[in-house]
Each structure stands twice: as C-alpha cells, then as structure tokens.
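Lab manual, section 2.4: Encoding a predicted structure.

Procedure: take the sequence of the chain (133 residues), apply the prediction step described in section 2.3, and record the output as structure tokens. A sample record is shown.
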Amino acid sequence: QLQLVESGGGLVQPGGSLRLSCTASRFNLDSHAIGWFRQAPGKEREGVSCISSSGDNTNYSDSVKGRFTISRDNAKNTVYLQMNSLKAEDTGIYYCAAVPARLLDSRWTMSPRCHHQVEYDFWGQGTQVTVSS
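Recorded output:
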C-alpha cells in the first residue's frame, strides 16, 4: 500500500510563502501522477494542482494560478507545492494524492479530471496551512 506523507505546513501571514512536500516511503513516486488538494473548514475538498509522472505537465485551479507552483524531484521521491502570495482563503488542510500513470491517458494532466478526488488511489494524512495576521 502506497503511503504518502505531507509536510511543510504552518502559520504564515498574508502575502507570505510556504513550500509543501509530499513523499512516500518504500515506494517510488516517479510512476505516479500527483495531485494537491485542500479542504477549508466547512467546505468540500478541492483540487489545487497536479503534475504528471515525468513532471512535464502541470495544471492549476484558477484560485491559485500564478501564485502556486507544483514540481517534483523524482531522484528525491518528492513532489513540492510552492505557495506564494498566500491569502486567508488559502487556509486549510492540504493533501497530496497519487494515481499510477499507466492508468492515465496522455491528456489527463491537462484536463479538469486531475482536480477530481475520485481519480486518485492513494492519499496522505494532510498538513495544516493557516494564513492569518
């Protein structure tokens, strides 16, 4: 069973930055597409960003486009979410999720499907991000 672990969350002031990490123990992530999701209090979980297994293709929700950057270092078995210009509405629990790339077609990462929870097979426990002054 693939287990994902998120880290890097915390408390930051509006306008600040955080970098989240997603890694897996005893399992290579380089054969998986990875998505980042978040859930604010009282709201449904929403897709934020996703990246193909190679890292060549990325996708962002409109709410974070231009502020967040997803990347991966397959040599370190880690996927990152760099979050800049943070706003109060970015507050929530951030989760990473994985799906085997062999199950996906070549256009998946560039489609809205990569922001849908049901597309993913494996999930982490989440890391809290709080943006507040």
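Check your result against the sample. The chain has a mean pLDDT of 95.
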